[in-house]
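okkk here we go again. third time trying to get the coenzyme A bound version out, last two times i messed up the smiles copy paste (missing a bracket lol). double checked this time i swear
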Amino acid sequence: MGPRRATKADLHDVEVLLQSYSIPVGGIHSEAVQFHVSRDKTGLLGCAGIEVFGDTVGLLRGIAVAERARRAGLAALLVSALVADVRLRGIATLVVGTKTAAGYFSRLGFTPVDRVAVPPGLLASREFDGASFGDTPLLKADL
Ligand SMILES: CC(C)(COP(=O)(O)OP(=O)(O)OC[C@H]1O[C@@H](n2cnc3c(N)ncnc32)[C@H](O)[C@@H]1OP(=O)(O)O)[C@@H](O)C(=O)NCCC(=O)NCCS
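finally!!
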């Protein structure tokens, strides 16, 4: 139940969950993107991923919790598990792009950041595939 690192066997369910909320799935099978997941016996409850750029910056992506598991703190737990993992690898800053959940990430300590202030490579993530990417608000948190 508790968050754990995803294995390849989890990724199909992750993709299905993300697609059900229209969250981009481009590149999620690549080794550059690592997920934490939580499951129960009936399936995937939630997921949160990170794509690392350079040595110190990570893009938080692919965060979703199934309706039946919402408002129990699961998304916060998944993000905490990811943060603990990447801190040990030297990641010092997390960025997230969201059109619908800026308020949620503010509660987790993220603050708005200008596009020019994030590494250009990060903006090339497949998370941002699609014509309407240009106006996706970005937020960041220093760990
Ligand atoms: C956002 C999401 C991951 C939160 O999952 P969760 O496990 O229910 O989150 P938590 O239990 O940690 O926190 C729940 C709180 O966040 C709030 N919240 C949920 N979605 C929110 C949003 N889009 N904006 C602001 N607050 C939000 C809830 O109202 C709840 O508030 P409360 O504690 O005052 O009742 C989940 O609602 C979801 O999967 N949404 C659809 C996909 C999505 O928007 N993903 C983020 C895209 S970047």
